[in-house]
Structures are given as structure tokens and as C-alpha cells.
Amino acid sequence: MNAVEIRNLSKNFGSKQAVCGLNMTVPMGAIYGFIGENGSGKSTTEKMICGLIPTSGGSIKLYGKDYTDKTVRAKIGVLIEAPGCFPQLTVWDNMMLQAANLSIPNAAQEVVKVLKTVRMEGAAGNKYQNCSLGMKQRVGIAMALLGNPTLLVLDEPLNGLDADGMRIMREVFTDIIKDGKRSIIVSSHLLGELQKVATHYGIIRHGKMMIEMCADELDASYRTYVALKSEEMNQTKILLGCKYSRVEEDEAGYLRVYDLTTPEEIVSYLYENGICVTEIKTDKIGLEEYYIDLMKGGK
Amino acid sequence: MINSRDIIFESPTFARRIKGMLGVDFYRLFHTPLFYIFLAIAAIIPAMVSAMTMMPDPNGNTMEPLYSNVWQIIASTKSLYVIEGIADYANMNMVFIFGGIMVSIFIGHDYKSGYVKQLFTTHAKKQDYMLSKSLVCAFAMACMCITYLIGGTVGGLLVNYDTNVNIGSLLVAIFGKIIMSVGWASLYTFLNIIFRKYFGVSIASSFFFGTGILIIGVAAIVENLSLPTAFLNIFLYGASVNANLSSGIDALIICITVSVAWAVFYNYLGTKILSRSDVY
């Protein structure tokens, strides 16, 4: 049984089709990285899963039940755009209000538990308006965690976080899914960060799912490359371009020869042509480059 | 391997849901300055109206008093659908104008902050939301009626207005208007649902309907045609005006019926609209 199963989902805003024929599967216990350009339909899809906007067609099943089923809706936690806190109240009061909204028994204990999960137990007395952006995002996640939801939908929770905030957020995600009962759908443009935590990915474009895969499959599909530096970079580039189909210079100044794993072949080829290689390494492209490649129509 | 059988799916009952939501809305009402500011406005305005009418003009002449009796600040002496002067209009019905603005700000925050997204994603039903907002805002407006009563009475007594009144009619007028808060609050909640994307329009529409200008316009036409005006009492403004210093118990019954009927209507319509539209 999957946490989310979406089939042929569509959403029209007047004549504009925001989502068209989208299929999506989020397994239980997954951190699902939901990736796409601005306006690709990510947020619209998330809002449909959350029941915030009605669908124009297709089906959304959550744990095998229709997404409108009130028992299954009670199992969703959400952070979309803003957590809906009252700025002049403290973090604790905001949490307690949300707990009251959700009719949670033993609200205080539950609030303490979720604040611990998001590393905010020491800041419960702070007014929400005085919290940093990272703290506000974590309060939002804590609110989403109230009521013990099994599916969390988090829209851009990593935006605006500093390095430490990112690290904490990664730890929080890992903690949330460790019992295997919860799943998280997390959309973000920070693909490098997402790559560190996501177990599954879905890449959406123009309202359609381009590709869905688990982290291992994605890792296996990353293109390998040999990166090198030489004393004569321009000449090296020309020479490599004559022999290999794709040679590019990266941001760090290395020449990359794609789909190769044997640097020896390049070293000897360049040596035969009078060029001495000063640095050479093999690597794989990251999620960000994979995504850019995919958007450009590459593999 | 975890599967969905390991997860318990359950949803709170209506009673638990509405109790939770009312608790949150009342907490917000009492723990934010908005409510107290509007209570103060409701108290100060009638007191100021009374006091200002007794102040001398620049030539040292005392202005003609707006009222002759303290209780005219609370309600008019008869059902005046078409106003003849500001005194006919400036009574407890003005609470429904300020109240509309308060409701717009109260509900507007739900949308601005993203609170409704949290709410509607989980088990909260649209009808719970409408009901909770209508009841809490009705309570707030009823409280404003009481502070208006206090402000108006103190102001009237300070400027030595006459206090003679038919107690029964006065009580009908006061309770009638307090009961009308339920209908007015539901109207404003409904308007704020319709214009939820446009905060300014929400406030403007609440103000527009709160002034009762539509009913005043209709009443002017009806009176010009010498037709009976009693049918105007089926509207919120009409029933509010009908609760006055010469009313009998029938006016109170009209207020209860009209207020509850419109509240049910607006709650039903608001729930339908919310259910079929996007949550922004």
C-alpha cells in the first residue's frame, strides 16, 4: 500500500491547464522529493492532495482511500507557504491552538514531543514574530506534526535557511520517517539539499510527471564523467572535442568528458598529443545537474 | 514492513471539532487587541455623539441637541427605515457597521497567515469554519452592543438628556439588536468568504451592507409609492430598525426569526461556496 497514489490527475484554472494527466506514487516511509520549475504544477498538486483546491479530473488515493475521506484527511500534516501562526502569540500558544483545532487529547504532552522533534523545545516561550526564518519553518513543521499525521506535505520548507538550519531540517526529516510509518512529500528548488535526504523523487514539468524513481535508481542513472585540468586547457578542449562526443568546462575550471570511467584512456591520448594532465578525477553528476540535463532534453 | 493496516484512521466528531475550533477562535478574540479596540470604539462613539451635540459652535451658540432622550442613542423612537436626520440613524445599529470591519480583519488574518490551509487540510469541515466564525463574531458584536449601551447611556446622562422610557420597549430594542448580531455576523463571514482574496473589498463590502443603504433605498421607493413597509423587516437592517423604543414583543420575535434565518442561509451558502472553491 502506498501513502499517495495519483492517477491521471488534472487541474484547470479557466483555460489554463496547471496539471494534466499527472501520475504519482509516494511509498510509505518515503521522503519524496518533488521537483519542478516554477509554475510546473508542484504547488497545485500538493494543494490538491491536501484538499485545498478541487481537482478537475483523475483520482487521488491516500492509503488506498479517496483523498476526501475525513478519516484519512486527519492523517495529513501540511506546511504550504506559511504555517498560519499568530505573530503576537508565543510558539507554545500557537502550538496549543493548533492542538485544540485538531482536538488532540493531552495537548501539552504532544506539543512538547513535536517541539523536541523539530529542536524547538528551548524556544517555546518566544513570540512567533520574534523567531528567525529557520525557527518559523520548524514551527510550521511542528504544527504539521501535531495529531500524529502519517503524511506530511511540505512546500519549500528549506527556503531561506542558513547552513545550520538546513542541517537541522535534514535531521528533522530523517527523525520523522525513522519509524517507517510516515511519509513526507517535500518540494524544493534546493536540489543539493534535497539529494541528501530524499529517498524517492518525482520530477514534474508543464503539469506532467516526467520521471519518478527511487534514490538508488536515480544514483544509477547519473552520468559519470572524467574531470581534468592540464597546462594547455584550450588545446586540450579542442583535442578532447575531436575524440569524445560531449566535453564541457565546469564552474571550477575542469574539463569534463562525460560517460567515461577510465581516466587512463584520456591521459594517454593527451600525452600522445603532447599535453600533460595536471589533475584528473572521475565523478558522477549530482541531482541538480541531472535535473538541468533532463530539462534540456538530455538523458 | 509497515502497511496501512498499522495506521488507525479516525476522525473527531462534529462536537469535538466545533468545540476545538470555537476554543481557538475565542482564544484569539480575547488575546489580540482587535476585539478590545472595537469594544472601545463602540463605547466611545455614542458618548462622543452625545457630548459633541452639546458643545458650543465657534460663535458660542449651543448646538441643537441631536436627541431629547438618553435612550434615543440606543434606538430610534419608531421604525424609521428612511432616515430623516442623523439622529434617526446614529444608534446601536451603528455597531453593525464597525462590527463588519472587525469581522473582516478577524477573518482576513486567517487567509493572510495561511491558517485556513492548516485548518482545511486536516479534518476541519467548511461548515465548522463558517459556524465557528459566525458564532464568535456574533459574540463580539453582541459585546460591542453592550459597550455601546454603556457609552451611550453614560454620555446621555452626562449631558442631562431625559431618561423617561417604556422599559419593555427599551429591553426589546436592546435584546433585539443584540440578537441581530447573529445574522449580521453570518452576513459578514459570508462576505469575507466571497472576497477572501481581496481584503480591501471584504472591508468595503462589509461597510456597504452594514450601512443598510440598500434597504434605505428600497424603503424610500416604497414610502414614495405609499406601499406598506412591514416586509422590510425580513431583512437584517429592517429587523434591526424595527427593534426600537416603541416596539412590542413581536419585534423581538421578528429579530430572533430573521436573525436565525439569515444566519442559517449565509452559513449554508458560505459552506457551499467554500467547498467548491480554492483555498488561497
Keywords:
heterodimer; A: 299 residues; alpha/beta; Rossmann fold; Alpha-Beta Plaits; 2 domains; 6-stranded mixed sheet; 4-stranded antiparallel sheet; 11 helices; 14 strands; elongated; B: 280 residues; mainly alpha; 68% helix
What's the gist of this structure?
The complex is a heterodimer of chains A (299) and B (280). Chain A is an alpha/beta fold.
Written description of the protein model:
The complex is a heterodimer of chains A (299) and B (280). Chain A has 299 residues and is an alpha/beta fold. In chain A, 36% of the residues lie in helices and 29% in strands. Chain A has helices spanning 42-49, 70-73, 91-101, 107-117, 133-145, 163-177, 191-197, 215-221, 233-243, 263-272, 287-296; strands at residues 2-13, 16-27, 31-36, 57-62, 65-66, 76-79, 151-155, 183-187, 200-205, 208-214, 224-230, 247-249, 255-258, 277-284. In chain A, strand 12 (247-249) and strand 13 form a beta hairpin. The mean pLDDT of chain A is 87. Chain B is mainly alpha-helical and 280 residues long. Chain B has one domain (14-51, 71-276). Chain B is built from eleven helices and no strands. Chain A binds chain B through residues 1, 28-29, 47, 50-54, 63-65, 69-78, 80-89, 93, 97-98, 100-103, 143-144, 147, 150, 153, 179-181, and chain B through 1-4, 6-7, 9-12, 16-17, 19-21, 23-24, 27-28, 31-32, 109-110, 113-125, 276-279.
